[in-house]
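To whoever picks this up:

The nightly regression suite flagged Concanavalin A-like lectin/glucanase subgroup as changed. Nothing in the input moved, so I suspect the structure step. Input below, exactly as stored in the fixture:
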Amino acid sequence: MTYNNPVIPGFNPDPSIVRVGEDFYLITSTFEYFPGIPIYHSRDLIQWTLIGHALTRTSQLQVHTPEPGGGVWAPTIRYHGGIFYIMAASFQRYRPQQDDRVWPQGFYVKTMDIWNEETWSDPIFFDQVGFDQDVSFNFLDEDGTIYLSSTYRKIHPTPGDELKDFAIHICTVDLATGHSTSEPQLIRESLSGVAEGSHIIKRGRYWYLFTAEGGTEGGHSEWVHRSEVGPLGLWELGPNNPLWRNGVEDEVQNTGHADLVEDSKGNWWAVLLGVRPTRQGNTWEDSVLGNGRETFLVTLEWKNDWPVINGGQKISLISQGPGLYQFETTVAWRDDFSESRMQLGWYRKNTPFVNDYSLTERPGRLRLYGGPYNLSVPACPTMFLRKQIHRVCRWETKLSFHPISNQTEAGTVLWLNYFTYSSIGIRKDDQGRFIRFQPSEGDATEYRLNDQTDITLMIDCGTKYRFGYCAGTGDDVHWIGSVSNGAAMKVPPVGAIFIGMMTGLYALGERQRCLVPADFAYAEFK
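Regenerated output under the current build:
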């Protein structure tokens, strides 16, 4: 049966998956955004529902002023003895342009009730540094030993080559304390200079080591190794590495970072990341959705005790697998702010210091009290973001904002990072209120508002991003500017683009708090 890929569109990279009974649970990276690590649920591998996040409290996650691409990387989810475990790491400093990184200490959180996000524990930190942590519980069942694998730079660089030298290391750990109980050993390095995303499983008499190699851009690929001895190796390279290879001219690119799951019928599957660029004439345009890397699903078969993923073929947008079916995620989504808590799927940039919003002070409105940081500051602004998951759609909100200071603003934003964003909002000067459109490149433009009505703000998404507003019921849309998709995806001068495009709501003051609230009546994609 054929089905559509990606199965979880938009900014959802580095998938990790586990099955408990008939239920599948999948998690992805969140980088510098809060809450951290979304948890998706499915019973058929096709329709996935966001059911919560693993890191929702300041006692679990403190992400403050990291560069774009910092924060929480590539978590792994596992289940053992009635307990769900999630392993991850959080970069507080990430400046690859200067080869300046602080290797984070990994950690894990756990719960017995994955449906209640408040039950996840505070983190237990590992002694071992690195990223892409994985703990396999296969070995706990055999001799009580737990192995932790992670990625960091080799102690001794490769002589004569300018490589990243990111390699897979493994050590034993005391899970209760996180303390290492053995020295780490290097078990896999790559000629590309990057071996990461390690997952170790046991099947039959073999242990299998899966690694993502070549970096997460055009050279990305997935490799496999096996050992009859144990997780320390020796490791035998698979006969058909990489397990598949998508190139820079394919409809799906940058594929890799796979994790495996077996369904209740004995079928095996792999989830992995990929991007969907759009063809524009003779060139590819970076995907506003998939540059953040999306979650794909493909079949896995075992032949001669080696895994064969997707039949060894390239990953495509239409895939085949037993028992699956065609499904398209709907464009329409709306939040009327009618509940006492924010809907799942809203994100903050960084961990907020204070409570700067309310859903109860004015029922049926999201009330924001803008904090002292504008959107260009690395700190956490008063801003709520949602992932764009369809290339062609319209984002819309209705705003009531009557500022008393010339140094405050509220509106809606097209967001990539604090270097690259485009906003349309309400401000005031001595003559009254006006609309300001600030594109990601170029100068701001302003349009006078003649009355005190609520303002509808919108962003049309497609071949470009177009920004407009309506003043009052029945007013025509005033389209006041646009931003090319290329400009919206501009690479930052520091950090990296690991996320896809997001849209959001904000209120801000220039080094001061907004004393007047901004009230949003709704937010929607349509």
